[in-house]
């Protein structure tokens, strides 16, 4: 897992890879689960809150939702994270 300083860039890459079909729903869920709480704590406050919320949402959509619905929700989550990253002027 990347260092805290590169989490934002990693999230942006995951978003692109997901949209390009290079990462699937389960891979994204596993990738977010692998981000440690310590790494999250090292992020800007807005991004940290959004990332924690994203992890909870990803856990919630894992079951009981079709893959198409999961993909739509994951895309929404990525849009929110990208907005948080841009607000914090992160690379």
Query: Roughly what is the average pLDDT, rounded to an integer?
Result: 86
Number of helices: 5
Number of DSSP strand runs: 0
Radius of gyration: 12 Å
Name the beta content range: under 5%
Low-confidence stretches: none
- How would a textbook summarize the main sheet? none
In terms of quaternary structure, what is this?
single chain
Helix-strand pattern: HHHHH
Tally of separate domains: 1
Globally, the shape reads globular
Instruction: Report how far apart the termini are.
Output: 18 Å
Estimated structural class: mainly alpha
Query: How much helix is in the residues?
Result: over 70%
What would you note in describing this structure?
The protein has one domain. Helix 1 runs antiparallel to helix 5 and helix 4 packs antiparallel against helix 5. The longest helix is centred in the C-terminal third of the chain and has 21 residues. The protein has 5 helices and no strands. 71% of the residues lie in helices and 0% in strands. With 91 residues, it is mainly α.
Which structural traits does this protein have?
91 residues; mainly alpha; 71% helix
What are the SSEs and their pairings?
Elements: H1 7-19, H2 25-33, H3 37-41, H4 45-61, H5 67-87
Helix pairs in contact: 1-5, 4-5
What's the gist of this structure?
This protein is mainly α and 91 residues long. The chain has one domain.
